[in-house]
């Protein structure tokens, strides 16, 4: 057997979607009609403790959809970390151990479905690019996609994002990125940093507030102009649906009207369905339509579900 055979075997065994990034415990409470006064207490109708984080939610949606994938992530080594790992399909995960507390996010759902997040630092503050990249195989085939999610919440991963995206490309992966909302705010330095990331991503998945902040109100075209030729900017627009822009051409898909339970993880569920459609050979506009369909189902069900399971088949 030649020295390269084990590497080829590993690549052949890898699924076509690789999910990298933040996994944490989510405690979702609500609905809330305005913030209570300091020093008071109120009751809410619903509380749910579940696995979360942008990468975590994407992996859960891929599992729910029956789409082959691999999640590469870390947790703390305490009880919450053990509990968190148990929420995922073990055969689809490659975990690294991180001594200490597991990051926890409290999601407060407001009436109408909007939400706000409160996050503890925990293990995400200690995640390293070395541990992440050590678990990244070569891409199994052309068109396989690796998504880096929630990197803005992980300082060392954030600092190494340019390197990580470059390494993913070198290993044959098409790249996708959904950095999340910066807790430090949209500083000039962060916008410059995004300018380094965007040309290295084949798929940039942002919500409309992130696009507005990144582009300083100049619209999605200003952000899309920073992408590589053929790069796809996807803008998740909540109840309005989603759009994508490729080389200046824009497609828009409307969302169905649904009774919203909660929107926590909606964008991540969208990402899962979008990427599954892309690796199946769908066009960008068909992929965003699939993303909108699955996200709309996810936000309107409790316990959460993603619609009919089964691998996406692109229409020819």
UniProtKB/TrEMBL annotation:
<dbReference type="InterPro" id="IPR011611">
    <property type="entry name" value="PfkB_dom"/>
</dbReference>
<keyword id="KW-0418">Kinase</keyword>
<dbReference type="InterPro" id="IPR002173">
    <property type="entry name" value="Carboh/pur_kinase_PfkB_CS"/>
</dbReference>
<dbReference type="InterPro" id="IPR029056">
    <property type="entry name" value="Ribokinase-like"/>
</dbReference>
<keyword id="KW-0808">Transferase</keyword>
<feature type="domain" description="Carbohydrate kinase PfkB">
    <location>
        <begin position="18"/>
        <end position="300"/>
    </location>
</feature>
<dbReference type="GO" id="GO:0016301">
    <property type="term" value="F:kinase activity"/>
</dbReference>
<dbReference type="Pfam" id="PF00294">
    <property type="entry name" value="PfkB"/>
</dbReference>
<protein>
    <submittedName>
        <fullName>Carbohydrate kinase family protein</fullName>
    </submittedName>
</protein>
């Amino acid at each position: 057997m030649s020295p390269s055979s084990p590497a080829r075997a590993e690549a052949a065994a890898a699924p076509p979607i690789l999910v990298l990034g933040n996994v944490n415990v989510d405690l979702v409470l609500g609905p809330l009609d305005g913030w209570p006064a300091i020093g008071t207490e109120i009751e809410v109708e619903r509380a749910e403790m579940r696995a979360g984080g942008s990468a975590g939610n994407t992996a859960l949606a891929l599992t729910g959809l029956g789409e082959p994938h691999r999640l590469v992530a870390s947790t703390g080594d305490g009880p919450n970390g053990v509990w968190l790992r148990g929420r995922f399909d073990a055969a689809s995960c490659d975990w690294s151990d991180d001594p200490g507390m597991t990051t926890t996010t409290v999601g407060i759902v407001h009436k109408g479905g909007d939400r706000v997040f409160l996050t503890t630092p925990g293990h995400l503050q200690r995640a390293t690019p070395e541990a992440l990249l050590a678990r990244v195989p070569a891409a199994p085939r052309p068109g396989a996609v690796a998504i880096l999610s929630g990197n803005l919440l992980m300082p060392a991963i954030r600092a190494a994002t340019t390197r990580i995206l470059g390494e993913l490309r070198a290993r044959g992966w098409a790249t996708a990125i959904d950095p999340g909302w910066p807790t430090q705010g949209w500083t000039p330095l962060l916008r410059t940093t995004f300018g380094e990331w965007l040309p290295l991503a084949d798929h940039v998945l942002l919500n409309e507030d992130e696009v507005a902040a990144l582009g300083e109100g100049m619209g999605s075209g200003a952000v899309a102009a920073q992408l590589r030729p053929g790069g796809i900017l996807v803008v998740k627009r909540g109840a309005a649906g989603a759009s994508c822009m490729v080389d200046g051409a824009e497609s828009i898909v409307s969302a169905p009207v649904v009774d919203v339970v909660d929107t926590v993880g909606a964008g991540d569920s969208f990402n899962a369905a979008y990427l599954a459609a892309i690796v199946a050979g769908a066009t960008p506009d068909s992929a965003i339509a699939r993303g909108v369909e699955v996200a709309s189902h996810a936000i309107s069900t409790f316990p959460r579900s993603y619609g009919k399971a089964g691998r996406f088949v692109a229409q020819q």
